[in-house]
Every structure is written in structure tokens, then in C-alpha cells.
Write a structure and sequence with these properties.
With 396 residues, the chain is α+β, with helices and mostly antiparallel strands. It is built from 10 helices and 8 strands. Helices cover 46% and strands 14% of the residues.
Length: 396
């Protein structure tokens, strides 16, 4: 594997560095408040950052130029996350519009859908949410019960979705529903582009552990979605949704590696500060060993991500790499967040607005938000089943 960058890639990196120096990411004000609130500073900062990046054409780097992208490749995408991560920006790769909807439309959407939606995604003009999970289904996405039945030029959607990220602020929803009455499991499913302002759509916000109304339960009460908003054909839903989730996980490893490196450096900095202050109880060999082990595992995640990029560039991409990265990276994220909390001891309970908080409440915030890392984009249990069955050939 060649770790060096080409002259073109170095120019891209330097251009990005210059732009970032003049356009720092916005601050997420969620660290300045405590408890439940109806505002959404985390998501607001995410959208503000996306709009800033859109102004410099840094979104959708690998998307075709005719839809507003730059037509670049995986290496430039990797450079983007490596360079932005140290700035500790709001999350971006997990935005449904960039990580799921855009790549799915590029692969499965009609030309009309691409021309209508992709430029608005790259301009950060629309926020999307993901209508997959349902009450009572858990991680078993194939057991969903929401229906989408044909009525003339429309599909009528009826049912409920849960844990719909960014739904309280989204203009559109990427919905999976049954297009065939009585169909079972993976059969008879369709994917729809549903406008949130349509009659019959009701979003009831749900607050996450840090107090934000980050997601919601959606109620779809005979929502009439135009036929042209069906992606692919009725019955193609399971194939499309698997492609969508794979696209999300592919981006995830780039973003997660950078985020974790920044978080671990912050934790190591605090550990050195504690050692300088000679506070008793913070020089335990087990803590030093845990920090070293976390750094080793972070390098493993980074190098495996680079190996996947190399294989993809050589035409030997492994579809299961995304599942491997997701399991390893999401569990490492929780480990790093727990280490930061452990090092701070009782001070970790303080929020960002507290004077005695060692890091303005960052450790506590990260610890709480990382609890969902092993759930989003497919749980660790589901990913392990995929690896066991498809890579190792084990029985179901």
C-alpha cells in the first residue's frame, strides 16, 4: 500500500486547508446548556456547517459534476475527513441527505429524481430524515408494517416510524414501506421520497440523552405520495435499502476515524494535565494501558479503512468491509468516550456551562451520544450476523 499522496491530491489538500483556515466550522451551542429543551442546537450547527461547506463546493466530492459534485474519488473524500476532523466540526457524514439519499438516488433514482433532488442536497437546501425503523420491529427492518398502496397516480402511505433522526427539522423523508398487501419479510417493499409537509404526516419529537429533540416518531395517516417519488420499481425496496445502508457505512468509517482521533487526542491531553497536577489515583497502570490500547485500535481502524480504499481503487472492493468497520469503529467510539469520562472522575458530571468542567462538558456529551453508535446504521448484533453468514459461511 502506498501512503503517499499524488500531486493532484496534495493540491486538493492544500486548497482545502486554505479554505478551512478562512471558514472555521460553527460552534454547537448544545454544550452551553443543561437538560431537556425544545431547541435543536446540534442539528442547527450541522446544517450551518453543511451550508458553509456547500458555499465552497466541498459536499458530494465524489458525485458527478452534472449534479453539482466535483467528480473526485475516495482518496479526496478521505482527505476531507482527515483535514476537517481536528477542527471538531458538527457531524456531517451521518446526515441522511449526504450519506443515504444522495448515493441511493445516484445508483437507483430516475434522471428526473436526480435533477430535482441532488442539487438541493449539495446546496444544503433540504434536510432529510430516514423512515426505516418502526415500533415493535427493533433491528428487524424486514418486519415493517407501514403500507404504500396504489391509488391512481399516488401511493397512499399508512403506518408509523420511530427513532427518525432529524425528523423535527426535516423537509423530506426517505421512507421504506410495503407496496404489496400481505407481503412478507423482504418481498413487496418500496422506497419513497416523501415531503414532510404533506397532509397526514405527523412528527412527535423524542428527546435524546443530551436533551435534544434529535429524532421523532412519525405517524403516516393516509399520506398521498406522487408515483414519481417512488425510487426504482415497487418491490425493489429491499435491494435499494441495503444499498442505501451500505453507502452510509462506507462514509462512516472515514468520518469516525477522524472524530475518534480528535477525541482521543483530547483525552490524552487531559491525562497529561492530570499527571502534571499529580492528582492521586490517576496514574493507574490500567488506565495507561487502556489509553494505549485505544490508540492501537484507532490505528487499526484507520489502516483497515485505507486498505478498503486501496482495494476499491483496484476494483476489488469487499461489500462486507462496511460491516466490519461499523462493528469495530462503533464499539471503539464507546470505549474512547468511556475513557474520557473515567479520567475526569466526578468532574465528568459537569456540563459545559460549569466553571469547573475540565473540557466544557465535552466528555459527558460524547459519552451520552456515543451510546447510539452501536445502534445506528445497523446494530452490532445485526452486523455480526452479516459477517458470520456472508463472510464465514456460518448457518443462520
Amino acid at each position: 500500500m502506498d501512503f503517499s499522496l499524488s500531486a493532484h491530491e496534495l493540491r486538493f489538500r492544500d486548497e482545502l486547508r486554505s479554505w478551512l483556515a478562512a471558514n472555521p466550522p460553527p460552534y454547537a451551542a448544545i454544550l452551553d446548556r443543561v437538560g431537556r429543551s425544545e431547541d435543536h442546537p446540534g442539528a442547527d450547527a450541522m446544517v450551518a456547517w453543511a451550508k458553509l461547506l456547500a458555499s465552497g463546493r466541498w459536499l458530494g466530492l465524489a458525485w458527478p459534476k452534472e449534479y453539482g459534485g466535483r467528480g473526485l474519488g475516495l482518496v479526496e473524500q478521505m482527505i476531507f475527513y482527515d483535514e476537517t476532523a481536528p477542527l471538531d466540526p458538527p457531524q456531517l457524514g451521518q446526515m441522511v441527505s449526504l450519506g443515504v439519499v444522495g448515493p441511493t438516488l445516484l445508483r437507483y433514482g430516475s434522471e428526473a429524481q436526480k435533477k430535482r433532488f441532488l442539487p438541493r442536497i449539495l446546496g444544503a437546501d433540504d434536510v432529510w430524515c430516514l423512515g426505516f425503523s418502526e415500533p415493535g420491529s427493533g433491528s428487524d427492518l424486514a418486519s415493517l408494517r407501514t403500507t404504500a398502496l396504489v391509488d391512481g397516480d399516488h401511493f397512499v402511505l399508512s403506518g408509523s416510524k420511530i427513532w427518525t433522526s432529524h425528523a423535527p427539522m426535516a423537509q423530506w423523508c426517505f421512507v421504506l414501506a410495503r407496496t404489496e398487501a400481505g407481503s412478507k419479510r423482504h418481498h413487496g417493499l418500496g422506497v419513497f421520497l416523501m415531503e414532510m409537509s404533506l397532509p397526514g404526516v405527523e412528527a412527535r419529537p423524542i428527546h435524546n440523552l443530551v436533551g435534544e429533540p434529535h429524532f421523532a416518531q412519525l405517524f403516516l395517516n393516509d399520506v398521498r405520495v406522487p408515483r414519481e417519488c417512488l425510487v426504482g420499481a415497487p418491490g425493489d425496496g429491499w435491494t435499494i435499502v441495503n444499498g442505501a445502508l451500505a453507502a452510509e457505512r462506507d462514509l462512516w468509517v472515514f468520518e469516525m476515524s477522524g472524530e475518534l482521533r480528535t477525541a482521543l487526542r483530547r483525552t490524552l491531553g487531559y491525562a497529561k494535565q492530570v499527571a502534571t497536577d499529580e492528582q492521586p489515583g490517576h496514574h493507574a497502570p490500567s488506565q495507561r494501558q487502556s489509553l494505549a490500547q485505544a490508540w492501537i485500535e484507532l490505528e487499526l481502524l484507520r489502516l483497515n479503512g485505507l486498505r478498503s480504499v486501496t482495494n476499491a481503487l483496484r476494483g476489488n472492493a469487499d461489500a462486507l468491509d462496511a460491516s466490519r468497520h461499523k462493528v469495530f469503529g462503533s464499539e471503539l467510539a464507546q470505549k474512547v468516550a468511556g475513557l474520557a469520562l473515567e479520567l475526569q472522575g466526578p468532574f465528568a458530571q459537569l456540563a459545559g456551562c460549569e466553571d469547573f468542567s475540565p473540557d466544557r462538558g465535552t466528555a459527558a456529551h460524547q459519552y451520552l451520544t456515543r451510546r447510539s453508535s452501536t445502534l445506528i446504521s445497523g446494530t452490532s448484533e445485526v452486523q455480526r450476523n452479516i459477517i458470520a453468514q456472508r463472510a464465514l459461511g456460518l448457518p443462520r
